[in-house]
Inverse folding.
């Protein structure tokens, strides 16, 4: 615990505060755009259903299907304002914050923090000081991992707070309908997503830790973590890899809508849009896959670090 | 006396480069021990192995009686390896606090930090951020970090770098007082005059091996030399005649020869038609002894320039 408290003090680095502020600003800007999109979508006329002639399709089953699709689109558009207003409820905004931080924005933020907080010990040549005080190298890594993960949790909190403050203002400005969800339901949704995000953030932190140990520097750690995350997303879109790709485990564990369905007025993640819908594992497979990935990254980092010469 | 530091056949290879080639070394408790060698001789690598920062390729080393790497050996060791590094956005005191938190629990942490800052002469600036420190102040903070745990053994690698003359003097006094308190100081430095003044024993390593170890006085006086005053026009001939004694010029009208008898030198010169106006026996200082032992051309040139 003492080592962890030392690591948390080190996280008072200006970059950490910068990343937290950037995460909060990103969430608010996304909410501004989302609320505006929802207001525009809500203005779509819903009364008129286009005829087969207007759709330039001969009357028959094909036209009927096209009309049904159009009806669904209009219904979805008209539901957008209420949906976005519900997402921006101060309590429910936790789900939005958790989804964003357990996807690409959070992964990139943690890549930056892994570079500064872990890789920076090599670049700043402070690792030798640390290891001459604490000879158990695995303890140093454990403290780094937990502190990095807590920084990720802090990013969710920063985003949640920013959305909770900005949400009601945006709903008012864009004339979105008031959300009718109960506080308990909103909090339950936010709590569930935030709890799930904890595992995903731990995996991102472990990837960042391994990248820092392997590259032994700030820039290397940040770049290697970002490359690993992007590679995970690319791997998930390759044919036949769906079930075995870590990115798919994240998607299923977090319950993100598949593929293009995740692109809405106010998206709740920046992850599943990069994964083509296909054979996906269930939530349990997602949980096991992420837990396995976390354990593998941790073990690899410990083995590598234990035999590493600290020469800087 | 018990050995605080011991190395047996210590070897370290880095991708084709041999930093240590079977180093054997013993440092007994309560000494100020100078560890000398030219750049790349293996001094820092030895210290890093002792502190568990570098894994040896072969051989074994013990610190505080425990074979390294052993975290328990570090609990009673303080170290400053090369230029000390700190978190620049934190104050000096906060940096020491972090290091104290990172190691074994200490009952009087704050008091020990204050005492270490005081001993290093940093009490007045302990509340300032490290990014505003000069190199000498950082060096002092490194020393405070090393002293913080009241170590039984202190490993210092070039600790006086960047310190002003007054700081070096204070530092010398500090090392002697630590040794007086029973702390073993293992000191690597290029300031041979300082080493000569402060150390009880020295070891010289060259190309990763121990060349010599013993008391400073013995190391320096074991190598007598002769200073020959001659006509500047005869200097090249004298150097050629006396080359088997590693003769070298010392100014335009003098030649130094190592470990030679005056009579024999005089005879050789006479046979060659060169006559010295004076032949003076001299005792080499630690610097001369070091240069002879390591035989590095670069070091010799640097000394000649000084």
């Amino acid at each position: 615990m003492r080592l962890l408290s030392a690591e948390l003090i080190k996280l008072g680095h200006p970059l950490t505060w910068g990343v937290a502020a950037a995460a909060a600003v990103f969430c608010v800007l996304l909410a501004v755009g989302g609320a505006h999109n929802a207001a525009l979508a809500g203005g779509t006329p819903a009364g008129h259903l286009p005829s087969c002639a207007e759709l330039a399709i001969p009357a028959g089953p094909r036209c009927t299907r096209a009309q049904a699709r159009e009806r669904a689109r209009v219904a979805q558009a008209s539901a957008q304002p209420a949906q976005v207003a519900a997402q921006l409820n101060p309590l429910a905004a936790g789900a939005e914050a958790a989804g964003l931080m357990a996807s690409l924005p959070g992964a990139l933020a943690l890549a930056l923090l892994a570079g500064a907080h872990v890789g920076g010990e090599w670049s700043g040549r402070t690792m030798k000081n640390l290891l001459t005080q604490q000879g158990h190298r695995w303890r140093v890594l454990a403290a780094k991992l937990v502190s990095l993960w807590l920084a990720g949790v802090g990013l969710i909190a920063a985003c949640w707070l920013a959305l909770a403050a900005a949400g009601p203002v945006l709903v008012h400005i864009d004339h979105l309908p008031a959300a009718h969800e109960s506080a308990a339901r909103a909090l339950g949704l936010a709590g569930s997503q935030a709890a799930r995000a904890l595992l995903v953030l731990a995996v991102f932190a472990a990837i960042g830790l391994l990248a820092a140990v392997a590259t032994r520097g700030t820039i290397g750690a940040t770049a290697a973590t970002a490359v690993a995350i992007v590679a995970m997303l690319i791997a998930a879109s390759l044919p036949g890899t769906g079930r075995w790709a870590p990115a798919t485990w994240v998607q299923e564990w977090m319950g993100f809508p598949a593929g293009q369905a995740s692109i809405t007025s106010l998206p709740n993640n920046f992850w599943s849009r990069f994964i083509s819908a296909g054979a996906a594992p269930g939530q349990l497979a997602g949980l096991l896959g992420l837990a396995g990935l976390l354990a593998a990254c941790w073990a690899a980092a410990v083995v590598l670090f234990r035999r590493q010469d600290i020469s800087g | 006396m018990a050995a605080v530091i011991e190395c047996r056949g210590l070897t370290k290879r880095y991708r084709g480069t041999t930093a240590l080639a079977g180093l054997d070394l013993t440092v007994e408790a309560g000494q100020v021990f100078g560890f000398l060698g030219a750049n790349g001789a293996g001094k820092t690598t030895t210290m890093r192995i002792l502190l568990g920062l570098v894994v040896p390729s072969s051989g074994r080393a013990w610190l505080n009686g425990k074979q390294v790497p052993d975290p328990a050996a570090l609990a009673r060791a303080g170290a400053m390896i090369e230029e000390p590094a700190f978190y620049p956005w934190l104050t000096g005191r906060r940096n020491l606090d972090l290091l104290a938190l990172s190691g074994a629990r200490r009952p009087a942490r704050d008091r020990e930090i204050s005492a270490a800052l005081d001993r290093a002469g940093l009490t007045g600036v302990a509340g300032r951020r490290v990014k505003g420190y000069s190199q000498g102040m950082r060096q002092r903070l490194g020393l405070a970090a090393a002293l913080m745990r009241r170590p039984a053994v202190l490993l210092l690698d070039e600790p006086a770098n960047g310190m002003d003359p007054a700081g070096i003097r204070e530092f010398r006094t500090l090392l002697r007082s630590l040794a007086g308190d029973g702390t073993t100081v293992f000191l690597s430095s290029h300031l041979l005059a300082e080493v000569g003044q402060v150390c009880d024993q020295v070891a010289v390593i060259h190309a990763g091996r121990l060349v010599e170890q013993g008391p400073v006085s013995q190391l320096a006086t074991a190598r007598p030399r002769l200073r020959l005053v001659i006509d500047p026009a005869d200097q090249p001939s004298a150097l050629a005649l006396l080359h088997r004694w590693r003769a070298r010029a010392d100014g335009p009208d003098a030649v130094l020869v190592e470990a030679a008898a005056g009579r024999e030198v005089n005879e050789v010169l006479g046979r060659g038609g060169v006559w010295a106006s004076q032949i003076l026996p001299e005792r080499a200082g630690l610097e001369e002894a070091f240069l002879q032992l390591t035989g590095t051309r670069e070091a010799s040139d640097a000394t000649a320039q000084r």
User: Anything to note?
Assistant: DSSP finds twelve helices and no strands in chain A. Residues 2-306 of chain A form one domain. Chain A has one domain: 2-306.
